[in-house]
Amino acid sequence: xxxxxxxxxxxxxxxxxxxxxxxxxxxxxxxxxxxxxxxxxxxxxxxxxxxxxxxxxxxxxxxxxxxxxxxxxxxxxxxxxxxxxxxxxxxxxxxxxxxxxxxxxxxxxxxxxxxxxxxxxxxxxxxxxxxxxxxxxx
Amino acid sequence: xxxxxxxxxxxxxxxxxxxxxxxxxxxxxxxxxxxxxxxxxxxxxxxxxxxxxxxxxxxxxxxxxxxxxxxxxxxxxxxxxxxxxxxxxxxxxxxxxxxxxxxxxxxxxxxxxxxxxxxxxxxxxxxxxxxxxxxxxxxxxxxxxxxxxxxxxxxxxxxxxxxxxxxxxxxxxxxxxxxxxxxxxx
Lengths: 138, 186
Known about the structure:
B: 2 helices
């Protein structure tokens, strides 16, 4: 009787470990719709922080989910495969470049330059622009 | 007649210098990489590659953010960033190189494809190594695009594969670069 209980317990543990490993292995990157932003910031402030001291800004923002508020200065829609919304003062040489979640391409939502918007994304760093990935509109 | 030919000469000269002074760029180039073993296939894509093609000086430069690589599986992406590429410490990869062939008159022609040889240095994971590759440059519908593909060894860039993953991750990784619709830099 005792042996049976031990065996069943072991089997349950083994099964749950197996299920956990399987689920963890096949886990998809989480949608940003379900992740809260760790901080809110204005687009122009973010750009100037990266332009002034990239290493310092990297420490603050790299890999973090951030929510950026700013004016749309350009929309780059490449053959419906890649939708990028650029935020910030169009007179500056840099923008916050938000690569939108692929779901937004299908949505065909209309974005208008000059309007203010808040976009949540993962900050991946700074090239010519401050780059945000997997962005969603807040 | 003399006047005409000088105008023609001027025009010819002007159009050639126009081509020669061109700097082309894109902020939305694509890099994919593949690592394949009998057990596992690992693939990732980065759609925000910055590339500048300096035609006048035969130079080409790339920069890409490591955290911008997207994997199908979240766990792979986390391991890639934390254990392999250490993207908090080394957020960027860059390539600086030159075209070994210097004939860019193709850029003025329509519907042409040429193969060029590129040599330069790739900086990845804080290590810089020489790389050579062939690239295809195509002109079509008044746009210029470029593509290249080469392989690197992870061990060259001090990227360690943990013993437990030896059979899942190939030391040899294929890298494909695609730059569509290069724009003229103003």
